[in-house]
Amino acid sequence: MISTPVKPDVTIAHAVAKLDAWFETMRGPGGYGGPVAHWWQQSLLYTGAGLDWRYEGIISGYLTLWERTGAEQWLAKARRAGDDLVAGQLPNGHFVASAFEINPASAGTPHEAACAGALLLLALALRQAKREGWHVYATAAQHNLEQFYLGQLWDKAARSFRDSPLVPSFVPNKAATACETLFLQAELSGEAHWIEQYALPNLDRILAHQVRGGSYDGAIAQNSFGERVVDKYFPVYIVRCVPALLRGFTYTRQERYLDAAIRALLFVLRQVDVTGALPTAIYANGHKSHHPSWIAPLGDVLYVITLLRPHGLILATTAIEARLLAGQSPTGGIATATGFAGQANKRPSQIPDFRDLLPVAGWCHKAFRYLASCVTGELPVVTSATYETECTFGGRCLHYRETPDLIEACNGQEPRYRWFKSASRPEVAREEFWVR
Amino acid sequence: MISSLPVSQLAPLDYRYAIDGALALLGNVRPLVRCEQPELDAELAQRLPVSDYMQHTIYPSAALWIEPQQVNWQQVLNTLATTLPPGTQLAIIASQPLARLLPDRQTWRGVPIGIKPGGITRLGNGLRRAGFYVQAKYGIHSVYAIGLNSLGGLMTRIGRADLRDRLEFAARLGYMTHGVAMPLATVALVLACKKATVV
Asked: GO biological process annotations for this chain's record (chain A) (predicted)?
């Protein structure tokens, strides 16, 4: 499993610069917007700003670029993103449109924890650099944690966060995102109770969802309802448990957290094929779903590989990284997946599904966070260009086109979908695009 | 407020889907909105600024009527017929008989026109009498999707969660229907247009 570590090079610097240019095209009133394609459902009709986990990678990525290059423009973009979150926070602590694929709605999980975590990263970076204004980001993050996570989702009996105030449910990767945020909150405030009282019990419950032994060793079940564990395994969600487990190890020095993190990542990497692709879902009965197979979300897998390097685990990234970079279009956006059209019947079309091609801010941020961490110097100056290709959707062959101003899919001259970037709804969305 | 309703308080997908579909059909114009089901007010507020739907614009170019009620649908329709200028599109969202199966709407008050068999036909006839012609009808949450979801539940019980998920995805693709299957969906979405001359 040992291979060449990632070499910061021209290709990655160019990819990061293109992603930055693309993110600029996705800005509208309130923040970064755009349609969403996802495993669970789609949000093609709400296209306004989404204050969800996209801010995790965007703020983290820009802060990393600032740290690596010293260029103030990156800090300005991180602050602008933080300002989006602060402006979009409701009096009850929630962020508007925080539900990603379920938008429009607030109280999205793990999205609000990811937003709060991003705000805390920003506050910590500003405070460390002795810059003004970090309090406002810290205050917004704490308000969300107190009102939502502690106020509504904390399950005293189970000593963990629920996924919904109304249902006794637990989702390890979502709880892990909340734990990461709690560690940051403790770091900023100097108060250990955020970790001792809330984060560590959640980490222990995550460990209880991890498989030990056999071919699934290291896998972490997707969720549970009460005592009933749903034994489905989603590699990109399993890796999202790793950063919190590592923080747990760093804080407690208990090997079980590091061991769990390593086992989780090794399970995921055992699923990677020679093209760098991962199954999206792995079932207890051995069946796997490769439809869709993620591209932009692979950024989280690569990011976690880099997190484990200081712990002596040097792992291959080449194939995964190649798949990620190959998914970047001339616009700078990175395609979401391959094989969406086969999600129900396992028979993907010869040409990509519209959702495969669609670059989604809430997926591309993952690639951005990882790629930004590989940058060592100034980025080239690039722009977002036009990208056109054929796609299929709703049984039709369509012409897909993305420019800095719009994303559209046309059947000949007839637009079936047209979203002018920055608008909160598409101008045209024919019936097949109503799909959730 | 736009996008502020918590996930745990959302209306059933049937109605959210129908509202989003209606707004897509009406384009980007500001519709006059008449919502007769208070439980759906928040879903409207999620999508339209309050000023868009609470205030009746003088010359609306589109209108959205949600859950016409048996008790007054004809009066409301007559009002719309006299208010809306010719060429105005009117989208109507109405529960159908299968909507009675939705657990979330068990506590909803009122008797919608569409919830009884034949209700949507009566509404269509009323629209024509009031000077509208029906452009399109959609059934949201089709009986096909309901069937696939039920089968998916069975698959889970026999240890085939993989098949359950695939059935769920197939159900989503077939969630909206047209034609003869339309009355067998939980919710109807009807698009009508005001004629130039009332016959």
From this structure: carbohydrate metabolic process
Complete DSSP assignment for B15-45: HHHHHHHHHHHTTTS--EEEE--GGGHHHHH
Cis peptide before A415 (omega within 30 of 0): no
ipTM of the complex: 0.94
SS3 sequence, chain A?
CCCCCCCCCHHHHHHHHHHHHHHHHCEECCEECCCECCCCCCECCCCCCCCCCHHHHHHHHHHHHHHHHCCHHHHHHHHHHHHHHHHCECCCCCECCCCHHHCCCECCCCHHHHHHHHHHHHHHHHHHCCCCCHHHHHHHHHHHHHHHHHHHHEECCCCEECCECCECEECHHHHHHHHHHHHHHHHHHCCCHHHHHHHHHHHHHHHHCECCCCCCCCCECCEEECCEEECEECHHHHHHHHHHHHHHHHHHCCHHHHHHHHHHHHHHHHCCCCCCCCCCEEECCCCEECCCEECCCHHHHHHHHHHHHHHCCCCCCHHHHHHHHHCECCCCCEECEECHHHCCCCCCCCCCEHHHHCECHHHHHHHHHHHHCCCCCCCCCCCCCCEEEEEEECCEEEEEEECCCEEEEEECCEEEEEEECCCCCCCEECHHHHCC
Over residues B40-89, the pLDDT tens digits come to: 999 999 998 755 444 455 557 899 999 999 999 999 999 999 999 999 99
Q: Is B166 close to A165, i.e. CB distance below 8 A?
A: no
Residue type, A230: V
Question: Out of B159, B169, B175, whose CB is closest to A344?
Answer: B169
Q: Dump pLDDT digits (tens) for A9-54.
A: 679 999 999 999 999 999 999 999 999 999 999 999 999 999 999 9
pLDDT averaged over chain A?
Answer: 96
> Does some domain include residue A63?
yes
Domains of chain B, each with CATH number or no CATH:
7-142+175-194 (3.40.50.150)
Angle at A428 between CA A426 and CA A432, to 5 degrees: 100
Supply the CATH number for residue A123's domain.
Answer: 1.50.10.10
Minimum distance, in Å, between the CA of residue A105 and any CA atom of chain B: 5
B14 to chain A: nearest residue by CA? Answer: A436
State the pLDDT at residue A1.
Answer: 41
* Residue A419 placed within a domain: no
The confidence score (pLDDT) of residue B1 equals: 73
- What digits encode the pLDDT tens for the residues A374-410? 999 899 999 999 999 999 999 999 999 999 999 999 9
0.80 cut: is pTM over it?
Answer: yes
A90 at B interface, C-beta within 8 A: yes
Q: What is the pLDDT of residue B52?
A: 46
Q: What is the pLDDT of residue B61?
A: 84
- Domain-embedded: residue A322: yes
Range of the domain at A272: 10-385
- Residue B23 in contact with partner chain A when CB distance is under 8 A: yes
Domain count, chain A: 1
Residue A178 within a domain: yes
- Pick from A104, A230, A289: CB nearest B2: A104
